[in-house]
Amino acid sequence: MFFNMDVEIINLPSIWLSATELSRLNSITDPEQARFYRQSRLLLRYLLGHCLSLPPESIQFSLQLHGKPRLGDEYRLEFNLSHSKNWLAIAISTAPVGVDIEYSDTSTNRSWLAIAKRFFHQEEYLYLKELSESKLVTAFSSFWTQKEAVLKANGTGLNAGLNKLNLLTQQHILDNNTYYLESGRPVSQLQCTICTQGSPTAVTYYIVNEQLEIQPIQPPYISHLCLKPNSL
User: Residue 93, Cβ neighbours under 10 Å: how many?
Assistant: First the structure.
């Protein structure tokens, strides 16, 4: 689910937040970052409450070993968040899930190949090295979001190592687990990858408007951009 955080939503009550969330909120000194954090946590509780038919304030969170937040085992639901620029993405699944979004800015001049050489698998670096400048940024962004999504679904984040995952292989395996990826641009200029662990899961995209109405995003705005068709 996607939400444009520049849009002022109807007021969600801060009493939904836990003591831990309120403490974190009060520690953020930048007003814009504090607004973003508050709004994202309230939206997460709203959507999880909607999916679980529970009051948003009753939902309890815990942390995995490497700090990934999760629901209790009794909920049988997994979630993950990502944000870029003014956009927030929330992925909800019955399987371990990761989501990553990156706002595309082709005007940014960065050493994409140097980054790939340092952090990506050697085969991926050699693949990117052969691309023209016009294709390099798009391909790098696609690689990056896919890797981030896998590592987040894995639960270890960057600790697992970006270079341990080779996206050019037929199967995407990390720590003996198989991951299934779907990539696309559900919103203009927003590269998105959703990853599930263990088995392929059908992905449906939604956008949440300022009235908190959940609306599906229909094709042709969705395009499958994974490197290997059978990796979906």
Answer: 19
**For 171-186, what is each residue's pLDDT tens digit?**
888 888 899 998 888 7
Contact at 8 Å (CB) between 174 and 196?
A: no
- pTM of the predicted protein model: 0.85
- Tell me the CB-side half-sphere exposure of residue 188, using CA atoms within 13 A: 0
Can you tell me which residue has the tokens 């999504």?
149
Question: What does the pLDDT look like over 156-173, one tens digit per residue?
Answer: 766 667 888 899 987 888
Q: Please choose, from the candidates 88, 69, 87, the residue with its C-alpha nearest in 3D space to the C-alpha of residue 79.
A: 69
Q: List the domain boundaries for the chain.
A: 2-231
Backbone dihedral angles phi then psi of residue 222, each to the nearest 5 degrees: -100, 130
Length, in residues, of the chain: 232
Per-residue tokens: 69: 């937040």
Residue 47 exposed, middle or buried by CB count within 10 Å (0-12, 13-18, 19+) = buried
Q: Which CATH class is domain 2-231?
A: alpha beta
118 vs 129: CA distance, rounded Å: 13
